[in-house]
Design brief:
Length: 351
């Protein structure tokens, strides 16, 4: 008799790409790149980050984002959640050092609070909960556009010399590796956008493969430098608890704050899901540029938060879908079907 392999319940999505990321981290722990191999991996990783942001720029439709300007109050609310409330909570986490978090983990926790929101998962959860899907699309697009500039600036302001240090050289690397490729993609989108849309599945594999390479390089450097000796099981548990509190606060503030501002139910759903999430796909490459050799600890909080937000928001979306309000014309979507599709990868074809 064939035994059935148990599967997690549908309301508890396990991000398959996070499993691949965990396997990549394990590989880096067992076989870290050293010497010449590390130099080669670092060079290829630098090129992969530039390629990622070129593709982000080529896929993101600025016109779609600007189409939502008539709903400017909602977008400003999401931006305030992403780039004001989140960073303030991240700064408050400094009080957890050194009793709960190490300085390095707190820097990663603060960086998590600075990255832009997601696109695809926000759209998916908003759709399931019967919220304002067009608003979620535009809000995610605005956040991604703003994050290209705002995240590095906030990192320079709040992180200072933490990690790899933030200097003129760091700013130059950010401009050359992130901003220039992104702007090049935006400029060339008119000519290459259709090609990228037709081959988005194959290019999605390129995205994911490039990020796996970036993660392996970052964690290899961390292993060689011995930084992982700082992450004890107790520290890891404390980090998870701090992130659970952070997510609960943002979900609560975005929902009840939007109600106090006079938004209707559909808009509040879009605000809650777009305003409480952070993009793993945008944050991982940024961290490697901002933190350099210290990126391995810096991305750990973001990787853990990504899975936590998927699991919690899936439960909330399912429950909101049972509310008695009329469903309207919103289509269903599967939040677990896109592991790292929260950057501007799918927006160009989402009309």
């Amino acid at each position: 008799m064939t035994r059935r392999i148990p599967r997690p319940p549908s309301w508890l999505p396990v991000d398959p790409y996070l499993l691949a990321l965990a396997a990549t981290v394990a590989l880096a722990a067992l076989l870290p790149a050293r010497g010449t191999a590390a130099d080669m991996a670092g060079g290829v990783s630098t090129g992969a980050v530039s390629l990622l942001f070129f593709l982000y720029g080529a896929r993101l439709s600025a016109a779609e984002a600007l189409d939502g300007l008539r709903h400017w109050r909602l977008h400003l609310t999401v931006l305030a959640c992403t780039f004001v409330v989140f960073p303030l909570l991240g700064l408050a986490s400094g009080g957890l050092v050194p009793y709960v978090l190490t300085p390095e983990l707190q820097a990663g926790f603060l960086f998590l609070c600075l990255v832009p929101s997601t696109i695809q998962s926000s759209i998916s959860f908003t759709s399931i909960a019967r919220g304002n899907v067009p608003a979620a699309i535009c809000a995610g697009s605005f956040s991604s556009l703003a994050g290209i500039l705002v995240t590095p600036l906030l990192a320079a302001l709040f992180l200072g010399s933490t990690g790899g240090g933030f200097s003129a050289d760091s700013l130059l690397r950010i401009v050359l590796q992130l901003l220039v490729p992104f702007l090049a993609g935006q400029l060339l989108r008119r000519w290459v956008g259709g090609l990228l849309t037709r081959h988005k599945k194959a290019l999605g594999l390129v995205d994911r493969g490039a990020i796996l390479l970036v993660v392996h390089t970052a964690f290899s450097e961390g292993m060689v430098a011995g930084v992982w000796r700082q992450v004890t099981p107790a520290r890891l548990g404390a980090l998870l608890a701090a992130e659970a509190v952070l997510l609960a606060l943002m979900l609560t503030l975005s929902w009840y704050g939007a109600r106090r501002l006079g938004f209707g139910r559909a808009d509040r759903i879009a605000i809650q899901f777009a305003g409480s999430k952070k993009s793993l796909a945008a944050g991982l490459p940024m961290a490697t540029v901002i933190f350099g050799a210290h990126a391995s600890l810096a991305v750990l909080p973001l990787m853990l938060f990504h899975q936590m937000q998927l699991m919690v928001c899936a439960v909330i979306a399912k429950r909101r879908s049972l509310d008695p309000e009329p469903p309207g014309n919103l289509a269903d979507a599967d939040p677990a079907s896109e592991a790292l599709s929260d950057p501007p990868v799918t927006v160009a074809g989402s009309r």
